[in-house]
Design brief:
This protein has 7 helices and 4 strands, in the order αααααββββαα. By secondary structure, the protein is mainly alpha-helical. The strands form 2 sheets. A two-stranded antiparallel sheet has the order 1-4. It has a two-stranded antiparallel ribbon with strand order 2-3. A hairpin with a 4-residue loop joins strand 2 (98-100) and strand 3. 9% of the residues are buried.
């Protein structure tokens, strides 16, 4: 069984796309990376505050690096999300990767698939929904206040229920 599991993990090893995910989620948001985009100048102060948020950077580093398993932080070499082979993941799950009808649900674009931490896909999807919820105010107009969309997103993201 152990050998079969190792073979499956090796089959879905996805080093290049995992490296890209690591960069986009755990590195680029925390400095003025050339690929970062936001509404400027309206969000400049918020983006600067985020980039200078030491606790947020430390939390991201803890998730990125397998720091909890090493006494010496300098010994943290590989991304934590690439080291924990708990489940086969989609790897890039967001609302654009889901096709939903009243009778079925399909995930598409699984080229990022790999074995990783079991909560990664769910957390990435929830983050995508939260971003849509927070962006709804900026997209609302007098003719289309997006009230139903915001209510639905709030209900979906409300994990306290």
């Amino acid at each position: 069984m152990f050998v079969a599991c190792r073979n499956e993990i090796a089959r879905f090893k996805n080093t290049e796309l995992c490296r890209l995910t690591e960069q986009v989620i755990f590195t680029d948001p925390y400095y003025a990376a050339p690929v970062n985009r936001h509404t400027s100048p309206q969000l400049d102060d918020l983006a600067d505050a985020f980039r200078n948020d030491a606790p947020a950077k430390a939390a991201a580093a803890c998730l990125k690096l397998n720091a909890l398993h090493h006494v010496d932080w300098r010994a943290c070499w590989q991304a934590k999300f690439c080291e924990q082979h708990q489940a086969l993941l989609h790897g890039d799950l967001h609302t654009g990767s889901l096709m939903v009808t009243p009778s079925s649900t399909w995930m598409i674009d699984a080229e990022f698939a790999y074995y990783g931490p079991i909560a990664f896909d769910v957390c990435k999807l929830i983050a995508n929904l939260l971003i849509a919820f927070l962006a709804a105010d900026g997209l609302a107009t007098e003719d289309e206040p997006r009230t139903e969309q915001r209510l639905w997103l709030f209900q979906v993201c409300n994990i306290d229920d």
